[in-house]
Amino acid sequence: MLLSCDLKLSISGGCATLNNSLKHSLRENFPALHNSATAYLDSASTCQVPSIVINAISTYLATGHGNAQRGMYQFSENASNLHQQCRNKVAEFINAPLSSDIIFTKSTTESINLIAHSLRQRLTQAHSILVTAMEHHANLLPWQRLCQQTGARLNVLPVDDSGELDTSNLTTYLNDNCALFAVTHISNVTGLVNDIHQLCKTGHQYNVPVLVDGAQAIGHRQVDISQIDCDYYVFSGHKMYGPTGIGVLYCKSLENEPLEPLEPLEPLEPLLLGGGIVNKVTLDNYQLKTDVEKFEAGSANMLGIVGLIAAIEFIDSIGWPVLKQHEQEVSGYLLCALSSIDDITILPTEEGSPVLSFVHKQVHSHDVASILALKNIAVRAGHHCAQPYLKAMGFKHSLRVSLGCYSSFEDIDSFVAGLNKVSRTFTY
Question: For the whole model, what pTM was predicted?
């Protein structure tokens, strides 16, 4: 539901006067932004990287780069230890029951494609896949292709006029011999948060495994896999202040009771084949390992592994209460400021969301973003890889402002000043 400027904050001159004490100490952790004139407001696309991550990667390279699980010498053994340390740390970070539930990929997108690939040999025309109209293309296109390849039906849970999921037909779709329900945790367009726990609970009542796209949640809120109780949870390191090229696929433990009509875990097939995933190979056949390593063919991305460890340590060192407070304050300041501008239409959002999208009533989104870029203001313009969602809300494109822990009130002031200049320029 779209919020107004009534935000339980002290008001001065029509907008909130907020406590600015957190901003400087948080921003100082990011070399690209500290003492920089850039107002970086595109964190939903990728986050800037703190010094702790940069230094960890640099130190690792400087002290010896090794290939994990490939050698008995110090560099390789150190890499192997870091690889397992990262698996343990990720499991702890999302409260997964076992570190063996964690599979490393290169991205959220690859994680989703791995699951879709695994289902290809098991789906028939009798099955269906359920997605929502809210999804990023990464959580839509793999399922479209899977259904095209197998003849399975692709059912789509719609959104209502406020951009929220319309669950009135959810049980009907789940009862349609549904093999998997894929849904986003938080929208990358509106920042609306889905009730993932309830959606998973409902899916399981119909024995349907649930995949949750957590790309936009992982860097902004504490994710508790045990409480969510999904079958798959996917995210990327670069959405949580880590490097690109490292992603995570959580799979519910093989020890858990499998769901029908498809057992969700044990029959999973690796997306890639190669070194490190086999027990035995002959000239005409191969025998895969039975643990998570069978999904991680080839040399591990050790820079991504080291960076992800450091990114988790960075978030843990600050703590979710501080991160949440800071983002809510800056988000409230942003929403209040934009609510006073007549030339824009704000898309649905909710209190404290780090993502806010809007359209300018007179100027195309790409033109606005180009003008802002000349002022060192970074925002996203376009369909945000979510064309069906925007279309469902009556838009073809929008501008998106997305926050990180380094975002400041000064960033918002610069952005709003630039936006007002756009309006003045195009109204003459």
Answer: 0.92
